[in-house]
């Protein structure tokens, strides 16, 4: 599959094409990791960089890491710097601008960190930041300080790959029933090391579910091998959340990777980040969510882009997020509508506009077309005391009733 297009004059320069690479190499994730783009010369094999991109690559070099897998590079439009895949992968000068309110750690990982790698923010669950490595260093990463900043990882590298203190903390807090492995991308580890960590968690009786946050299904789906899936399936329940941001990322390779995870009993959810110039249009977001459903990935969160140092140029307004959400709710299958959240030091806060408001006469409801109806105690008890005392009068089924009459209509 090639995204190769021709220039307006019809001339196609000799950029690398998918078809130039033997299947044996293309299907081997280690080959992609070895061949990652890390400098301008390698980038020129896949795209024709603009002068601004060239400057950004040079000026961000000492500050932020850069790497792109050939697979993800093959999805970039070679000529259009506005390509939604290209913008996520190629440095921009906006990363060096200072935005007011921007922070390196707006979600407070450092504040809630209990061991080198364990962040304990919610009562019954923790995240483990097990690596700073990723196949592609996404330009919009919320943990840019950890993954992409050249000097800025959260954890002590001196501890190497010893996870015993982290596992001891989790074992010592039996209220922790859910552990999310994240980073960086946990699947950057070879299978053996990853299994060691997961087996360590599974040996803790209070840990019920293990979740993995990984963008490999998007950035390098070839990593989702039968061996990896078989290993993960030995430690069920294991869940995986990935991070598709644009319908262009849903390729046959990505679909195969998701299918493989699902066939091994690993539910796959998706977290999208709302990004200016990439997916901040209703039509794009609708196509993304419906395509995710088609490949059986459940849209889970729509994150408002955090005001992270080096990322702020991707931020939209919350008003834009509301417009997107209103373009999804009611317009596509209900479980294809993600929850719109802002990640803060207080945790994730749902910020979608409500579809109801309280009035002196009852609850005013509006549907996805903006039509309103009033619901009062005669239709549906609004308070516990109304419920306890029954309806004040016999409901008039011809008025104020929703027309839903069965499961299919809900
Ligand atoms: S793969 Fe995830 S953790 Fe890594 S840079 Fe991209 S968004 Fe950040």
Automatic annotation (TrEMBL):
Residues 400-410 have a biased composition (Polar residues). Residues 391-410 are annotated as: Disordered. The modification N6-(pyridoxal phosphate)lysine is found at residue 348. It holds the Pfam family Radical_SAM. Its cofactor is pyridoxal 5'-phosphate. GO terms for molecular function: 4 iron, 4 sulfur cluster binding; isomerase activity; metal ion binding. [4Fe-4S] cluster binds at residues 134, 138, 141. Residues 120-336 form the Radical SAM core domain. InterPro entries: Aldolase_TIM, Arg_2_3_am_muta, Lys_aminomutase/Glu_NH3_mut, rSAM, rSAM_sf. Keywords: 4Fe-4S, Iron, Iron-sulfur, Isomerase, Metal-binding, Pyridoxal phosphate, S-adenosyl-L-methionine. This is Radical SAM core domain-containing protein. It comes from Streptomyces cellostaticus.
């Amino acid at each position: 599959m090639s995204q190769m297009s021709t220039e307006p004059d019809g001339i196609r320069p000799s950029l690398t094409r998918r078809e130039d690479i033997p299947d044996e190499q293309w299907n081997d994730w280690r080959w992609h990791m070895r061949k990652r783009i890390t400098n301008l010369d390698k980038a020129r094999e896949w795209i024709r960089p603009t002068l601004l991109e060239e400057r950004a690559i040079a000026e961000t070099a000492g500050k932020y890491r850069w790497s792109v897998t050939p697979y993800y590079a093959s999805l970039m439009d070679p000529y259009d710097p506005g390509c939604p895949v290209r913008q996520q992968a190629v440095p921009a000068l906006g990363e060096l601008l200072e935005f007011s309110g921007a922070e390196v750690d707006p979600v407070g990982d450092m504040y809630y960190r209990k061991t080198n790698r364990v962040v304990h923010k919610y009562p019954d669950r923790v995240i483990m930041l097990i690596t700073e490595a990723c196949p592609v260093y996404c330009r919009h990463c919320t943990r840019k300080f950890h993954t992409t900043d050249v000097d800025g990882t959260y954890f002590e590298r001196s501890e190497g790959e010893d996870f015993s203190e982290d596992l001891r903390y989790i074992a010592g807090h039996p209220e922790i029933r859910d552990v999310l492995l994240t980073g960086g991308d946990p699947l950057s580890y070879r299978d053996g090391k990853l299994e060691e960590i997961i087996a360590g968690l599974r040996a803790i009786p209070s840990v019920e579910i293990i979740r993995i946050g990984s963008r490999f299904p998007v950035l390098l789906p070839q990593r989702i091998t039968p061996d990896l899936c078989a290993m993960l399936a030995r430690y069920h329940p294991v869940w995986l959340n990935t991070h598709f941001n644009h319908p262009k990322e849903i390729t046959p390779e990505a679909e195969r990777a998701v299918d493989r995870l699902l066939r091994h009993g690993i539910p796959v959810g998706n977290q999208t980040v709302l990004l200016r110039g990439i997916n901040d249009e209703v039509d794009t977001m609708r196509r993304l969510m419906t395509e995710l459903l088609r490949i059986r990935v459940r849209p889970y969160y729509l994150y408002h882009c955090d005001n992270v140092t080096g990322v702020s140029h991707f931020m939209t307004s919350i008003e834009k997020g509301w417009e997107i959400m209103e373009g999804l709710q009611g317009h596509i299958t209900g479980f294809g509508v993600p929850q719109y959240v802002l990640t803060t030091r207080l945790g994730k806060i749902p910020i979608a506009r409500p579809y109801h408001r309280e009035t002196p006469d009852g609850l005013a409801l509006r549907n996805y077309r903006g039509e309103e109806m009033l619901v009062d105690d005669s239709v549906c008890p609004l308070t516990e005391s109304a419920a306890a005392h029954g309806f004040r009068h016999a409901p008039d089924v011809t008025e104020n009733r929703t027309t839903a009459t069965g499961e299919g209509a809900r």
